[in-house]
Structures are given as C-alpha cells and as structure tokens.
C-alpha cells in the first residue's frame, strides 16, 4: 500500500452543500499522509491539533508533518480520553492552550480523534474569539459516518448530554480509513450502529447492502468501509443540507437516540459507548414503530438481528431497581427533543422513511419493559 | 407620564437587517410596561428572565408581568453583579437553572441588565441546546447603544476579555429609556463614551450634535437620550448589517477598544468600567491617528474635552511600576484584533471615517507614554 497515492485505493469525495458554510468530506486510505488532503485550507500562521492521549500517539506525528507544509507553527493539545471528559473543564484546556500560545482568530483547529474530540474541538472552534476555522480528522467509524459531519458540536452538562453546544461547520472532513485499523472491536460495532441507522431512515437498499456486507465490514475490508462511509455521509449530507439547525427533517438522524440518550445518561456517560446506546435505542424505536402500527414485527426482528451480528447490545439495561420505567421516562423528558413536555420519537413509517411523532406514554412503557426484560 | 402609551413620548424603531436573523430595536419611555413591545416574539411555554441582584429588584417584576401575557411559565435567574462575574462559572448558573427546570429548546431567554448580563445571556442562548431565542432588555446606556445590538456575545477567560463567545443575534432589543433614571452617574458616563465613539468613526454631524446636547444627556433628558440611542443604534445596525462576523468594516466599532482592553485587563476586570476604558482608549487612538499624520492635533484635544465633559477619565493608568509600556504592549498582543502577531488599530482618517491600520511600535509607545504622563 502506498500512502502517497490514495486515488489508487477506494476514494470518494462527498460535498456538503450549506451555502457559504459548504465543505467537502474526503474518504479513503492514506489520506492523512496525502498532501492534497490539506491543500486549500484557510491561511493562518498557526494550526492546533486537538487530540487525546490514546489517538495522538498513533496519528498525531503524521498529521503534524502534513500540516507543517501549510502552517508556520503547528501545536498539539492532548486531552484525556473518554466521554466522561466531554465537559467544560476539558474544553477549557483547549482555550488555555490557545490563549497561552497567543493564538489569533485565524488559527485553524484540527480535531484528531473520535466523536468526543470532534464535538469538543468543534465547540472550541465555535467559541474561541467567537469562531475560528476547524478541520475534522475522525479516527473512529462512528465519527466518520456521523459526528464529524453536520456541524453539531457540544459538551455535556451534569444534567444532560450535549446540552451546551453550537451548530458550527468544519471547513473540511478527512476520513482516513487506515485509522480504523487500530480501532477496538467494540468501537467498530458502535460505529456500525450509525451506519445501520441510515438504512431504515433513508435508504432500504443500503440496509440490504449492509446485511450482505456486514462480515466484510467487521473484517475492516477497505472497499466495504469506503462504501459504507461514503453512503452514510451522502445521506447525512443530504439531510443536513436541507435542515442545518434541526428545525425539521434533520431530526430523523436521531432515530434511536431518544432511548439511547436515556441509556447513556442513566448508566453514567461513558459506561455504554454512544453507538452501543444508539444500537439498542434503534431496536426500541423500531419496536415503538411496530406498536404504533407503522411497521410489521418482522422489521423489528430483522433490525435486532443485524445489530446483534454487528456486535451491538440489543437488550436495554435496567436503570433503576424499583422504578426502571419511570427512570427512563424521566431521563427522556430532559432530552433536547422534548418540547412543551411531550416526548416525540423518530419512528419508521416505511422502509427508508422516518418521521417525528409523539407516542402515547403507555406504548413507550411497553417498549421499555420489553427491551429490559 | 403614562407608561401604557409610549408612542406619546419619544419613540423610535431601528431595524437591523441580517437576512433571516433580522430584528428590531425599540427605543422609548415606558416600553417594558407597553404590551406591544412583547408582541410577536417566538412562541414557547417558558420564558426565563436573566438579570442580576442589582437590576432585578428594580425592573424584573414589570418584565415578568409583561411576559406572563405571552408565556405560561416565567422564570427568573439572578446572577451576581459585575464584570468580575462575567465568566464560565456564572454562565453555568444559567445552564443549571434551565436544565433543573427542564427548559426545552424553544425557551426564550430575556436579558435584563447591562452589557455583562446581555453578553452572558446571549452566549447562554447561543449554546443552550445549540441555540434558543433571546431578547435584549438593556438597562444601561452602554448596553442600549452598543452591546445589546449586533450579536456579539461572550464571557471572559482569565487570559483575556471576551475570548470565549459567539456571534448570535437577539430576536428583539427593547430599550426602555426609563431604566436609565436609576443608572449611577459613572455608568451614564461610560455609556456616553460609546455614543461619542459613533461621531468620529461614522458621522461628524452626530459629534457636533453631542457637543451641543451633552448637558441635556447628562441631565437624562428623554428626548435627547432617545435621539442619542437611536442614532447610535442606526450607525451600529448599518455597520453590523454589512459585516456581521467582523471580517472587515465592523472592526471600526472597536475604535478605542484595543487600548481600552489593555486598561481593563491590566487593572483587573471591573476596576474600570468598559466605557471608561473605551473613553480613555479613544483619546489614545485619536492621538495615534494624529501621530500617524491622519488627523490634526485639534481633533485629539476636541475629543479629549468632550470625554472630560461627559465625566470620563482621559488619563491612562499605569499598569506596571517599572515596565508600563511593555505591559500595555503585552496585553494588546493577546487582544482579538492581533493577527499574525501584528497589532492593528482602528484609526480616524477623516471626521466620520475610520479604518484599520497597523502602526509602528515606536508611535504606539509614544501614545502610551503621553497618555500615562
């Protein structure tokens, strides 16, 4: 494999059309070392790589080398690793570093890591001096297919996940598939949850493709991964392009997330990976769709089976010994999608088609009880 | 005076044109109690007044009463008063309150107070669930003529003022001139600094008007205040409308602010009022304009005299016993307007006309030495 010629390997470019905030997603092998990946970024004297103590040792040196051709000064901040550190205190380490090094308002931030690093770096970029440009270099499958695209940035608050954040778009996303080689199996599965999600909500044919190619994806076959990342990004880009600030259709991307956030919050952030919670939450949301009479029971079994094959948990955890259902309902109330006190869910109303809908509490209780059984 | 009929008193409406982020500034007496001031705001179940322990006792009850006609639930958060509290810890009190009360993403925040409250509430609105609408009800002259208009929101960082923030527009600004009746004289003067600023940078005739009407303004004559606030907002709205994110011309609004920020930071935030620092900084920036050969010395004397009459300090403080000039230069380096290590200043190149320009360090040193003498 020659890292200098990624075009000889699976390579794709997905444009995200958002007027003056448009950008490209590059997908392929060897992209970090490929100079063209970094061409045409905003001019500045300084670029700052933001990574964590797990990812930086694996990839930061090559990113630094690539950036040094374009920026006079390349700095690196290493944050502690993990969802438990996705908070204001850790975010402030970025600000401290930028200010201590007199970084100006043209400074380019480069997020090198998974979803936590991308969300925090993006939010730091949104807020530092009221906005500096940033590049996403996602190193997990979940970040490549979901969190690095679309401009949602945030940190957690003790009372809720991603409660403090901004819509702020990167200037480029560089998905180097080689970074997935070192990804722990559990994180690969978590990423597959978001890949699988795009099928039911937007493209039934893609779900068929996933069913056929799931073993290749689990074996990290580059051609299969390239297709999965590209198709996921295409769907996400199309949805986000029509509804950047999630006033309408974009919400369908949260399929499985209302239940999933309750699991994440109830177990304590970081106990379940986000993608694991979403995988389980998707099966629950599919079950709700069936109980609402929108989809056949066979759809729920099929989705559960695909998630199981991907290595995802499909049984929901108990969040409270005596008041489990109430605990779920309580946690879902403070979820961002709760408006005027009514919980709305993303449901599937036909294969490849999703919509937002409020559900009777009795049905939601049945879903939780069945999933935790 | 009948608060229910503000149209019988000085009243003006200034539109701010920013595409889908456009809004109106209402200026007049009795506006808080006037129901029409609050008509047509975004629908929601909850409005949250954010104020401080000084302003809330004076005005929060009337704001609450007005809001109760439009929102089922009206909450109030009282923050500690002062620039020293313009930090993340205080901002987080707003988030804590919103989350503890299960406020959703439609919740409308209402900033009731001066520039600190407006900046923090605006930033909280920008970040809470990635953005909720907010209304500015500025209760200081400085906030009415400057900080409540244009969408700059921020908190301070120990290493720099307003370093963490966002461009985020309010949905309405309600400038009730009656709130200025209780304003301490020092804060009135601080507000006049920003009013005076608009003359040299954009409208020589307005500076003439200020010179003639300064005594009426100091006596809080409502007609004079209405004109001063309206003309200031018109100029700011025009400048901001052409350059929302300060990539170009908007920077002229920072006339006096580079020196001013050094004074504020060097003295410790809160020791000098922002407007006082800007007043002194304007005289220094005028002096720099003269030393660059752009303006006659008479302009500097005239501006200094107007600032003195307004009750503003025109002698700069010493920031260091032995290395005073170096301390100023050091503090100005980390100012947001420093790009690529070069300090650029807003200078006046003709009455009513400003531009950005880098200045030789030797001249800047002369300005600091003269101002501190």
From TrEMBL, chains A, B:
<dbReference type="InterPro" id="IPR050071">
    <property type="entry name" value="Dehydroquinate_synthase"/>
</dbReference>
<dbReference type="InterPro" id="IPR016037">
    <property type="entry name" value="DHQ_synth_AroB"/>
</dbReference>
<feature type="binding site">
    <location>
        <position position="274"/>
    </location>
    <ligand>
        <name>Zn(2+)</name>
    </ligand>
</feature>
<dbReference type="InterPro" id="IPR056179">
    <property type="entry name" value="DHQS_C"/>
</dbReference>
<comment type="function">
    <text>Catalyzes the conversion of 3-deoxy-D-arabino-heptulosonate 7-phosphate (DAHP) to dehydroquinate (DHQ).</text>
</comment>
<dbReference type="GO" id="GO:0009073">
    <property type="term" value="P:aromatic amino acid family biosynthetic process"/>
</dbReference>
<feature type="binding site">
    <location>
        <position position="194"/>
    </location>
    <ligand>
        <name>Zn(2+)</name>
    </ligand>
</feature>
<dbReference type="GO" id="GO:0009423">
    <property type="term" value="P:chorismate biosynthetic process"/>
</dbReference>
<feature type="domain" description="3-dehydroquinate synthase C-terminal">
    <location>
        <begin position="191"/>
        <end position="338"/>
    </location>
</feature>
<dbReference type="Pfam" id="PF24621">
    <property type="entry name" value="DHQS_C"/>
</dbReference>
<dbReference type="GO" id="GO:0008652">
    <property type="term" value="P:amino acid biosynthetic process"/>
</dbReference>
<protein>
    <recommendedName>
        <fullName>3-dehydroquinate synthase</fullName>
        <ecNumber>4.2.3.4</ecNumber>
    </recommendedName>
</protein>
<feature type="binding site">
    <location>
        <position position="257"/>
    </location>
    <ligand>
        <name>Zn(2+)</name>
    </ligand>
</feature>
<comment type="pathway">
    <text>Metabolic intermediate biosynthesis; chorismate biosynthesis; chorismate from D-erythrose 4-phosphate and phosphoenolpyruvate: step 2/7.</text>
</comment>
<keyword id="KW-0862">Zinc</keyword>
<keyword id="KW-0170">Cobalt</keyword>
<feature type="binding site">
    <location>
        <position position="152"/>
    </location>
    <ligand>
        <name>NAD(+)</name>
    </ligand>
</feature>
<dbReference type="InterPro" id="IPR030963">
    <property type="entry name" value="DHQ_synth_fam"/>
</dbReference>
<feature type="domain" description="3-dehydroquinate synthase N-terminal">
    <location>
        <begin position="77"/>
        <end position="189"/>
    </location>
</feature>
<comment type="similarity">
    <text>Belongs to the sugar phosphate cyclases superfamily. Dehydroquinate synthase family.</text>
</comment>
<feature type="binding site">
    <location>
        <position position="161"/>
    </location>
    <ligand>
        <name>NAD(+)</name>
    </ligand>
</feature>
<dbReference type="GO" id="GO:0046872">
    <property type="term" value="F:metal ion binding"/>
</dbReference>
<dbReference type="Pfam" id="PF01761">
    <property type="entry name" value="DHQ_synthase"/>
</dbReference>
<keyword id="KW-0479">Metal-binding</keyword>
<dbReference type="GO" id="GO:0003856">
    <property type="term" value="F:3-dehydroquinate synthase activity"/>
</dbReference>
<keyword id="KW-0057">Aromatic amino acid biosynthesis</keyword>
<keyword id="KW-0963">Cytoplasm</keyword>
<keyword id="KW-0028">Amino-acid biosynthesis</keyword>
<keyword id="KW-0520">NAD</keyword>
<feature type="binding site">
    <location>
        <begin position="139"/>
        <end position="140"/>
    </location>
    <ligand>
        <name>NAD(+)</name>
    </ligand>
</feature>
<keyword id="KW-0547">Nucleotide-binding</keyword>
<keyword id="KW-0456">Lyase</keyword>
<dbReference type="GO" id="GO:0000166">
    <property type="term" value="F:nucleotide binding"/>
</dbReference>
<feature type="binding site">
    <location>
        <begin position="179"/>
        <end position="182"/>
    </location>
    <ligand>
        <name>NAD(+)</name>
    </ligand>
</feature>
<dbReference type="InterPro" id="IPR030960">
    <property type="entry name" value="DHQS/DOIS_N"/>
</dbReference>
<feature type="binding site">
    <location>
        <begin position="81"/>
        <end position="86"/>
    </location>
    <ligand>
        <name>NAD(+)</name>
    </ligand>
</feature>
<dbReference type="GO" id="GO:0005737">
    <property type="term" value="C:cytoplasm"/>
</dbReference>
<feature type="binding site">
    <location>
        <begin position="115"/>
        <end position="119"/>
    </location>
    <ligand>
        <name>NAD(+)</name>
    </ligand>
</feature>
